[in-house]
Amino acid sequence: MAAFKSIKSLVPLLDRVLVQRAKAETKTATGIFLPESSVKELNEAKVLAVGPGGLDRDGKRTPMSVQTGDRVLIPQYGGSPIKVGEDEFSLFRDHELLAKIKE
Amino acid sequence: MAAFKSIKSLVPLLDRVLVQRAKAETKTATGIFLPESSVKELNEAKVLAVGPGGLDRDGKRTPMSVQTGDRVLIPQYGGSPIKVGEDEFSLFRDHELLAKIKE
Amino acid sequence: MAAFKSIKSLVPLLDRVLVQRAKAETKTATGIFLPESSVKELNEAKVLAVGPGGLDRDGKRTPMSVQTGDRVLIPQYGGSPIKVGEDEFSLFRDHELLAKIKE
Amino acid sequence: MAAFKSIKSLVPLLDRVLVQRAKAETKTATGIFLPESSVKELNEAKVLAVGPGGLDRDGKRTPMSVQTGDRVLIPQYGGSPIKVGEDEFSLFRDHELLAKIKE
Amino acid sequence: MAAFKSIKSLVPLLDRVLVQRAKAETKTATGIFLPESSVKELNEAKVLAVGPGGLDRDGKRTPMSVQTGDRVLIPQYGGSPIKVGEDEFSLFRDHELLAKIKE
Amino acid sequence: MAAFKSIKSLVPLLDRVLVQRAKAETKTATGIFLPESSVKELNEAKVLAVGPGGLDRDGKRTPMSVQTGDRVLIPQYGGSPIKVGEDEFSLFRDHELLAKIKE
Amino acid sequence: MAAFKSIKSLVPLLDRVLVQRAKAETKTATGIFLPESSVKELNEAKVLAVGPGGLDRDGKRTPMSVQTGDRVLIPQYGGSPIKVGEDEFSLFRDHELLAKIKE
């Protein structure tokens, strides 16, 4: 649990990326509500904030692969979970993100 | 499960390669259908998209070994599975791919 | 247990950061006291002191990501615990800190 | 199992070496056939194809130790097995090969 | 057990630091003697000798973080124990020391 | 088992060293034959062939520590065993050899 | 067991150091013989020979911390044991030695 009020207060350090996992649809395309057991967790997430980049051995920042607003594919496991109120977020290292989603 | 509609929306990050495993033949060369238990999983895959390359310690991109459209030999285990609808795909790191198939 | 009298005597070495975990509220916003079992440990901490930075391979100090007074998000596990009297503190490596909290 | 028809279609990536293990004699020097249990697996193999070499940290290819046609001593364990029809092959990293055989 | 007579004979090698753990008080501030079970081991130590520093990859010595006479916070576990007569000492690597104590 | 006829056909790759373990005496200095159980395995070996040296990160060969004909002390465990007929040999990496024996 | 006759025949390779552990006193300072169970193993050793130094990434030798004749503190565990006749010796890597003993 965190004491701060808004996730917007978080500024990721080094090469960390703050994401929020996309919510699975709880009803079908035709509007029928799905029973909870058939709603699967998605590996898609939205980037909320990105760190300044890690430091290479010469003290320079390594560029980040994503930016705020990007939709990304995240790995099944890993990341540091953060809970603010009822909402859940995750922090990943930049190199752990798998792909950008462009559509 | 992923919420995006087409695998074409995926842009692999860093040195990742998006592949689709080749489907095993379900009938013999002479047209006889094989029972499902004798259809083995293939380690051959088609490259659908490649990342821009990883970053070396000087911040330069390392070249990728394969390109979109290549047929490749993938390792028996490993890779990150992705499911879009009924179709399954995988993301590998470039150095995990074993060989190109040229014929 | 430590024999020194004040946490202010501690000067972290290399890339270490001395933090004190934020205390969880023991009463609700409307002033009702919470039973102890419903008070969760927070992952938020205040930076009390920072080391001079680690040494890179050329003998130069790598810059620290945080400074004294910063509020930070710390990982669920890890860090070196320090107890002075009844108060508890932790030492983390700079790269273990997850994010700054700005509000 | 692989779907391609000939092992000659395989082009090893990076520092990989495609080899075929030498077949153990199934009859003695004087022509007597050996029972299968006394035929031991050999650690000798023939190099069928070599990759272009791995990439060093400056992006240059590291030279390969062997070339197509070489006879090599391979380690007892390891390598990626490949099966084409009834024939079995292996892919090793260049540095895993133990010795060349010259006679 | 060591055969040398004085701990002063020890000259730490490379980046090692010779320390002696601070003794816990066996009586309270008001002079009441504590039963042995309530005397906790301290993580505070005094630096008795420091090595010349480790060698970086260019053969240069990396500077030490502490010097003889410093009071330091040592980790709960680790270090190489040395016993001279009834006295116990420890050798730590410089980067294992957590903080200096200044008061 | 190896199919090649002579150990002299082996050319070690990279930093590998081909050695043959010294045979323990099966009789005492005064000529009395020892029962087999009291003949201990020796860690002394003779160097039969040396590789060209490993490649450092700039693509240069690192020099080998031993040469053909040297007597060396080998570690108790490790090395790749090779059997040619009834004779046993081993391949070690150069840095695994412990010492030269000069007498 | 080793077949060579004298420990003086051993020339350590790379950064290895040949040492002989100091023998514990089997009688007290006043001349009383100690029962064997009260004679503890010492971690003090004498340096008999030192290797030329390991190779850094530029192919240069890294300097050794000790020289022949030095008395050193060795770690409780580790090192490669060597037995010549009834005498036991050990080989350590230079960086494993803890301290020099000067008295």
UniProtKB/TrEMBL annotation, chains A, B, C, D, E, F, G:
Listed transmembrane segments: none
Statement: the UniProt record of this protein carries the keyword Chaperone: yes
Gene3D superfamilies: GroES chaperonin
InterPro entries noted in UniProt: Chaperonin_GroES, Chaperonin_GroES_sf, GroES-like_sf
Protein's name in the database: 10 kDa heat shock protein, mitochondrial
Keywords: Chaperone, Stress response
Chaperone listed as a keyword: yes
Cellular component aspect of the GO annotation: mitochondrial matrix
Top-level taxon in the UniProt lineage: Eukaryota
Chain's role: Eukaryotic CPN10 homolog which is essential for mitochondrial protein biogenesis, together with CPN60. Binds to CPN60 in the presence of Mg-ATP and suppresses the ATPase activity of the latter.
GO terms assigned for molecular function: ATP binding; metal ion binding; protein folding chaperone; protein-folding chaperone binding; unfolded protein binding
Similarity remark: Belongs to the GroES chaperonin family.
